[in-house]
Amino acid sequence: MNIALVGYGKMGKIIHQLIQTHTAHQVPLIIESGQEDKWNRENLSAIDVIIEFTQPDVVLDNIHRAFEFNTPIVVGTTGWNKQLPEIKKIALDQNQTIFTSSNFSVGVNIMFQTLQYMSGLLANFPEYKPRIHEVHHTQKKDAPSGTAISLADILIDSLPQYQGWKSTCDMPRDKDIPISAMRIDPTPGTHITTFESDIDTLELTHIAHSREGFALGAIRSAEFIQDKKGFFDMNDYFKSLK
User: Fold this and answer.
1) Known catalytic residues?
2) Domain coverage including residue 51
């Protein structure tokens, strides 16, 4: 499989290294910031899948460019959640292929599924009050992280007493899931969901030791969508494993 890397920061470089050392895939095209001229039919004609890790202010342009050249794209950039329904509709209407996730780590996605089960049980016990805390490196632009927001969305779907989430900097109300965020180098990513009552405390924690888990997940996602059409996320990938 020929993979194009769009964005060649720390994640792009790790993905490139893992492709070279762990797979038989090739990376014939790398598009860095300021190299928009590389988006052309000649370059993209040889590409099976794009893996994109850039910034929230350019991710939509990159998605539309991928669609223009009918090239499947894996999007690892976070911080553009509000545009997700629009992009999903375009992908389905135009028979394009996109795979996106707030986090490509296998461990994080197992945590998501575990939290769905936990929060379904805890819906019967409103005395447990949830909160989310996340820590990342200082180069991460969005806060709270996309993963923290995904955790909050799981809780909101399961716990009827909560209507939304809010950063602890913005004084959450009783009906908000509070999310606190810290930026400390060189933390790859830590997420803690806590349920606290007067009697005891439950915690569900994921601590990333390196960025390789996210990179491997992105490569697996590219392999998953190579011959597919539509809108996909990590739930679809996990379903394919059953």
Assistant:
1) 136, 140
2) 2-100+212-240
